[in-house]
Amino acid sequence: MSEPKALYVHIPFCSSICTYCDFYKLVAKRERKEKYVEHLVKEGELKKESFSALETIYIGGGTPTALPLNLLDYLLTNLKRLIDLGNIEEYSIEANPNDITPELALVLKEGGVNRISLGVQSFDKEKLKILGRKHSEDDVRKALMILRDLGFKNINVDLIYGLQDDSFPKVKKDLKKAIAMGATHISAYSLILEEKTILKKLHAEGKFNRLDDDLEAELYKKISAYLKRRGFLHYEISNFARKNFQSKHNLTYWNNMNYMGIGAGASYYLGNTRYTNITNIDKYCESIASGRPAYKEVTVLSSEDRMQEEMILGLRKTEGISLTEFKAKYGIDCFQAFPVIRNLINLQLLEAKHDRLYIPEEKLYLSNEVLVNFI
Ligand SMILES: C[S@@+](CC[C@H](N)C(=O)[O-])C[C@H]1O[C@@H](n2cnc3c(N)ncnc32)[C@H](O)[C@@H]1O
Ligand code: SF4
Q1: E strand map for the chain
Q2: Could you give phi then psi for residue 184, rounded to 5 degrees?
Q3: Which domains, and CATH codes, for the chain?
Q4: Which residues line ligand 1 (CB under 6 A)?
Q5: What is the spatial distance between Cα 184 and Cα 323, in angstroms, rounded to a whole number?
Q6: What sign has the CA pseudo-torsion 171, 224, 364, 20?
Q7: pLDDT in tens, the chain (375 residues)
Q8: Other beta carbons less than 10 A from residue 354's beta carbon
Q9: pTM for the predicted model, two decimal places
Q10: Residue nearest (by alpha carbon) to ligand 2 atom 4
Q11: For 332, phi and psi rounded to 5 degrees?
Q12: Exposed, middle or buried: residue 165 (CB in 10 Å: 0-12, 13-18, 19+)?
């Protein structure tokens, strides 16, 4: 089994809860955060043997910058001790714009972080209010200035679109501002109304609505065309990057490669096996304290499962999958493993050219309909 090239580190805390978000996260007191980070580092110690081939690290959440500064510093210092950062090409952290101060940015810089993913969602006051975000356009501008002043050059901005009042002129304003402020990568997510979120409840009460599907598909196409005109590569369904700024870490997932994970609720994928850690923070800490692995779920994937995942993840990328690599990996031709590919090609929902199988860019808005055929 080859050593994983990517490490995911999970921080399940947020300073406040956004109306659309169903990620596992909590607003916690300082002592709880301290206990958690202590055990997170301990899990890192237990797994350090598998860190030798790492090329990317991603600290996500929740909101990692919701940690008190000294705790974030403690975490980064310990990761630096456990991992040879000389081999790390991309080291990302998710951050909330109004957590970014010169002091925090310095801690990130000294910790070796070289990519920041900012949860902006929008610059529009009304939209930010509906989404339950606490920052303003000015906070984002200040955050990006601080980061740029310290030499951070690789910056992702997360945006959300697809609220009932969204139109292209409105979303274009967000894209334009993100670009003007120096984003080298943009993740543009269409709003999902998740169960047990405030927006879902408001929707059920008739007080909130999403954009109609057809209008949203139009919006998606316009977002993609606009970002391409502005020099961004559309490389995954929701992800756009300036040349050489694609997320190497996320490409590990989409290329269906092994990765390690630490933290409550973190998943990892080693050999043919997927693991998911205990989500409950106290139970997670108990398990780590006793030196036991903290996973609650282990799924050994059959060759069929792995082929399915290869398609579902790989077809998210605009370059799709390599037919020869698929055959080398699974010992079977992709067309033989999935006869449905022929139908999808006839329907022009898939294209096979120069050894690659992919969803044509103008059909990416139908990606869910395509991917569902591989489940
Ligand atoms: C787990 S969040 C982490 C980022 C960080 N906590 C923040 O929000 O500042 C990752 C991203 O997922 C996206 N996201 C979360 N819930 C979503 C939903 N229901 N629909 C669309 N995008 C969503 C948001 O763009 C968010 O920035
Ligand atoms: S979007 Fe980010 S900040 Fe908001 S609740 Fe989800 S994880 Fe927390």
Answers
A1: 6-11, 56-61, 90-95, 115-121, 154-161, 185-190, 233-236, 239-241, 260-262, 267-270, 273-277, 295-300, 321-322, 351-353, 356-358
A2: -105, -5
A3: 6-254 (3.20.20.70), 320-374 (no CATH)
A4: 20-21, 23, 61-63, 94, 96, 119, 121, 158, 160, 189, 191-192, 194
A5: 30
A6: negative
A7: 679 999 999 999 999 999 999 987 788 999 999 999 999 999 999 999 999 999 999 999 999 999 999 999 999 999 999 999 999 999 999 999 999 999 999 999 999 999 999 999 999 999 999 999 999 999 999 999 999 999 999 999 999 999 999 999 999 999 999 999 999 999 999 999 999 999 999 999 999 999 999 999 999 999 999 999 999 999 999 999 999 999 999 999 999 999 999 999 999 999 999 999 999 999 999 999 999 889 999 999 999 999 999 999 999 999 999 999 999 999 999 999 999 999 999 999 999 999 999 999 999 999 999 999 999
A8: 6
A9: 0.97
A10: 18
A11: -145, 145
A12: exposed
62 CB within 6 A, ligand 2: yes
Among 266, 252, 268, 247, CA closest to 10: 266
- Biggest CA–CA distance in the chain, Å, is 59
Residue 112 near residue 91, CB atoms below 8 Å: yes
Q: Which two tokens stand for residue 32?
A: 């709880």
Sheet holding 260-262, edge to edge: 233-236, 239-241, 185-190, 154-161, 115-121, 90-95, 56-61, 6-11, 260-262
**Cα–Cα distance measured from residue 210 to residue 223, given in angstroms and rounded to the nearest whole number:** 17
Choice from 10, 11, 13, 14 to test ligand 2 binding pocket (greatest atom count within 8 A of CB): 14
Amino acid at 238: S
Cα–Cα nearest to 265, from 252, 250, 275, 251 = 275
For residue 62, whether the previous peptide bond is cis, meaning omega lies within 30 degrees of 0, is: yes
Please tell me what DSSP assigns to residue 319. Answer: T
